[in-house]
Amino acid sequence: MENLLKLFDAEYKFMSIVWELEPVNSTELTRICEKELGWKKPTTYSMIKKLCERGVMKNEKATVTTLIAREDVQKHETEVFVNRIFGGSIPSFITSFLQDKMLSEEEAQNIKNMIDEVTKK
Amino acid sequence: MTALFITILNMSIAASVVTLAVMIVRIPLKKAPKIFSYVLWGVVLFRLVCPFSIESIFSLMPTSSNAIPQDITYAQNPAIQTGVQFIDAPINTAISNVLPFISTDNSINPINTIFEIAEYVWLFGFVSLLLYATIGYIRLKRRVYYATLVRDNIYETDKIKTPFVLGFIRPKIYMPIGIDPSQHDYILKHEQTHIRRRDYLIKPFAFIVFALHWFNPLMWAAYLLMSKDIEMSCDEAVLRKADEDIRGVYSSSLLNLSANRVSLLSPLAFGESDVKSRIKNVLKFKKTSRVIIVLSMVFVAVFSMGFTMNRIPQINSGGNVPDEIPAAINTTITNDVLSSYIADGGLSRVVLLENNRFYVEGRPEISYTPTGSYEIDGNKLYLNVSENQQFIFSIYGNSLIFESGEWLENWIAKETVFILLEDEQ
């Protein structure tokens, strides 16, 4: 699973378009990618093929759907990031993240609730 | 192919002279904008591709443009003629010491064999370099295949570490992802300047030209220095156009993005080409005064003109005037001159001697002087050099008109008129 969730920048941008629109017709997809990513038709098709081979998406009867969720990729990327930069320590990550930032009363409350959720389990 | 190869060698020699001159001149030009040094390399490029040039007394070239005579592979005593005595003398002595003496006419001239081998080695080197460059280009192109559009011709991808320009017809700028936003604009301006100046065409063209001269180490030095001058003048253009002093930000972007790979045919990459000296150049940048710019312009103009034009060949430089005939042909010409005909102001001549002997000088820079016996039939003059080599002239009063003759046609156009030289009769 690890490998599936590691996406290069172009792959993530492409997947984001598909997540947004799926299920989407592949011809329609090439048209959108040309506008959004500056890709020619063959580029989009070879990207579809590449991601299908990796089992990240599916292309059946010219309809493209994804096989992984955006949240899973985001979670994976965040974990990799926290591990790499903060040695896996969530508090030091949050300290750095909150530096020089003012939170509104509401945002602070939201975060508190989130922490409570996690600690209850 | 021998003719092409000798032309290449001659261009290489001329370009080496110009390269040395540019290297010297770059020192006083250090304070001036680097665009001036960049322009000077244009003269080297010209010398590397163009075997011809205008002859002028204002030429600054110290050497002749045909140091290696085209007929060297046929010459009995192969010799070079740069026109500079202290270069010619030792080299020609070395050539005659190394080459075995040829006694009979029908044996293969050893210098011919040497040239034939050298031609293949040269061709192999050239083709290998082109192949290397093409593969490098294709690999880079593949690497940025999935780069995504930012706007206009700007693309971004996380598969590269340093920004660069790629493409020939519609060049695109490729930026790595995650560049500091404060540096983003200047890096982009740098790459856009490359595109505006057509550097993306000039650099590959220069590479092909320098690859033709791969055997000449001076040309590699020239290529590297030129790449450096291209990048530095581009840095300066960005600094000059900026409203505020961005030297600090700009140098830190150079440092962050310095390309750590060393590649011969690098594209126009932002962090390319000797980052340390580029940072130095950026930090000491200040807008140049008008006086320095005008002076540099004049200087560069004089330099470029002087080294683009060829010097006028000196008629006596080859030593082939009748009263000092080289030893090789002295043995055949022991007779007195009956009449001599000249063309091109004395650069070419046909000399008829007693006992139906003759000799012909194609050009003063050619060491080969055909001789033999002549016959006159009606108004035709036949000069027989060998069984399969005959020069034919028509006689019209006091002049000769060149009709045909395979070797001589290399040097003299058909229907060239040779005039009788009165006082030598």
Shape of chain B: elongated
Give the helix level of chain A as a range of percent: 55-70%
The residue ranges of chain A in which pLDDT falls below 50 over 5 or more consecutive positions are none
Global geometry of chain A: elongated
In whole angstroms, the N-to-C terminal distance of chain A is 25 Å
Count, helices of chain A: 7
Largest interface: A-B, 11 and 11 residues
User: Mean pLDDT of chain B, as a whole number?
Assistant: 80
Unreliable sequence segments of chain B: 315-334
Q: How much is the radius of gyration of chain B in Å?
A: 28 Å
Largest sheet of chain B: 8 strands, antiparallel, barrel
Spell the H/E element sequence of chain B. Answer: HHHHEEEEHHHHEHHHEEEEEEEE
Mean pLDDT of chain A, as a whole number?
Answer: 83
Helix/strand-derived category of chain B reads alpha+beta
C-alpha-based Rg of chain A, rounded: 19 Å
Structural class label of chain A: mainly alpha
Beta-strand portion of chain B reads 15-25%
Broad CATH class of the domain at 2-70 in chain A = Mainly Alpha
Characterise this structure.
The complex is a heterodimer of chains A (121) and B (425). Chain A is mainly α and 121 residues long. Chain A has a domain at 2-70: Arc Repressor Mutant, subunit A (Orthogonal Bundle). In chain A, 69% of the residues lie in helices and 8% in strands. Chain A has helices at 2-5, 9-21, 26-37, 41-53, 70-86, 90-98, 105-120, and strands spanning 24-25, 57-60, 63-66. Chain A has a three-stranded antiparallel β-sheet. In chain A, helix 3 crosses helix 4 (41-53). In chain A, 13% of the residues are buried. The model of chain A has no long low-confidence stretch (mean pLDDT 83). Chain B folds into two domains: 2-308, no CATH class; 322-424, Uncharacterised protein family Atu4866 (Lipocalin), CATH 2.40.128. Chain B is 44% helix and 16% strand. The longest helix of chain B has 34 residues, at 110-143. The model of chain B is unreliable at 315-334 (pLDDT under 50). Chain A binds chain B through residues 8-11, 13, 36-39, 43, 47, and chain B through 145-149, 155-159, 177.
